[in-house]
Amino acid sequence: MPHRIDPRSGVAFTLDKGQRLTVIDAEGGQVADLLAYNRADTAEVLSSGRTLDYASRIYLTTGDPLYSNRSNIMLRIVEDSVGRHDFLLTPCSADTFRILYGDDRPHRGCFGNLAAALEPHGVRPDDIPVAFNCFMNVPVNGDTGAFTVEPPLSRAGDRIVFEADQDLVIGLTACSAPLSNGGSFKPIDYRID
Ligand SMILES: [Zn+2]
To answer: How many angstroms does the Cα of residue 19 sit away from the middle of ligand 1?
Structure first.
């Protein structure tokens, strides 16, 4: 049985080197923000900048490694039934909802959910970088660089599978941002093998 992350919430757990993490969009059209930290030293963290630099592409899929800020491979994508994920945008947060949506009493978002879940592992809010946003669909205009946040292309049961290259602490959410999830909030399932 997979574990379930309730809508608009997040969890943290350990993943050992060689283990596989399967992130499943249970109902379809739902984003999951993924973070990884080196368990022995949480100052080493997933790096969008290094990963995209080495890939020379912004859309990553099966076969692509995800690098840390120290240029070590943390995870490898070993399976992907969607082929569209985002690694440009930060986790949604109270500030996102205040600035982009004009909310007076904003939800804490993926950022707040990740900060709370990762705190027992020694991770501080300022240690949270751009997450790998599973299933997030951000098409970019190649000429102007303008982008939009569109509903995910994932359908119920779609998945992406990562293999750990280090002993890791993982943070994972069911994203809280209306635009990213086609206007409704659904759960995310995950499995460790
Ligand atoms: Zn989010």
So the answer is: 25
- Round to whole Å and give the CA distance between 67 and 165: 10
pTM exceeds 0.90 for this model? yes
Q: What is the pLDDT of residues 59-101, one digit of tens each?
A: 999 999 999 999 999 999 999 999 999 999 999 999 999 998 8
105 Cα–ligand 1 center, Å: 16
Q: Which residues, 6+ apart, have CB-to-CB distance to 90 below 8 Å? A: 96, 111, 129, 130, 131
In sequence order, the 6+-apart residues with CB closer than 8 A to the CB of 27 are 156, 186, 187
Residue 92 Cα to ligand 1 midpoint, Å, equals: 4
Q: How far is the CA of 33 from the centre of ligand 1 (A)?
A: 6
Tell me, in angstroms, the distance from the centre of ligand 1 to residue 176's CA: 5
- Model confidence band, residue 183 (pLDDT cutoffs 50, 70, 90): very high
